[in-house]
Amino acid sequence: MTLRARILGAAAGGGLPQWNCGCENCNLARAGKIPSQTQSSVAFSGNGSDWAILNASPDIRDQMARTPELHPTALRELPLRSVMVTNGDIDHVAGLLILREQQPFKLFATAEIHSVLAQNPIFDALRQNIVVREEIALDQPFELAPDLTATLFAVPGKVPLYMEGEVVQTDLEGEQTVGVHLQAGGKDAYYIPGCALVKGDLADRLRGADMVMFDGTLWQDNEMIDMGLSQKTGQRMGHISMSGPDGSMAAFADLGVSRKVYVHMNNSNPVLRPESAERAEAEANGWTIGQDGMEITL
């Protein structure tokens, strides 16, 4: 058994370029001067034949079309065994509607996230006698796909934007935002596309891992405010920044993780420009900037 990961989409919600954004990165991507990136999703396999998709982005159709490992093996047979969603964000669940074509697979999520899906009848298009919905408890290993074990764990975050009230807590820990520990062939990988901060217990969990795919939404906390794109900081959105003394690069510096990969990058993030000083700094700190189609074998 070999643990394989394939990044289907490396960008955060909206992708790169975002349809309504004229920032430097989006304009460069439209002009073909930097790579375009689709929205947040990855695929994992423990044997190269059976695959699980983590987070179903709105771009899932095109992402799967560009990934031969996920192509049909017969008329209506796929190597896709399951889909797992780590929170209820639109960029992580909207793609479920694309997967409604009478195709059987298991849909894994916590009870809280399944409740969010159940409250919206549009997701009934995924007929439950075909797509089996399974509630997963935190910190309990389960079979995500043949030869691939997963364990969900809470990470600091917040409820989806469409469920926010007047007061928003951005460092909730529970079933609304989870990370995933994946195991196959004696290797340990973690997928955490959304995280507000790296507390001591999370740092201890990740220490010495073979790979961590981690929230790379923003380079600095006030990035979108400074660029005139939003009035929200990264912390307000439930995302730790990459840089600074409280950022993820500093948090991971002494954890001994063999392979550190940023995913879920917002279109404003300067690391999306291959020649940027920020990208050079991230790479100098041992990080790989995730790209659509990137494959990692452990």
TrEMBL record:
The keyword Transmembrane does not apply. It holds the Pfam family Lactamase_B_2. The keyword Nuclease does not apply. GO terms for biological process: pyrroloquinoline quinone biosynthetic process. Keywords: PQQ biosynthesis, Transport. Pathway: Cofactor biosynthesis; pyrroloquinoline quinone biosynthesis. Residues 51-265 form the Metallo-beta-lactamase domain. InterPro entries: Metallo-B-lactamas (IPR001279), PQQ_synth_PqqB (IPR011842), RibonucZ/Hydroxyglut_hydro (IPR036866). May be involved in the transport of PQQ or its precursor to the periplasm. Belongs to the PqqB family. This is Coenzyme PQQ synthesis protein B. It comes from Donghicola eburneus. The gene is pqqB.
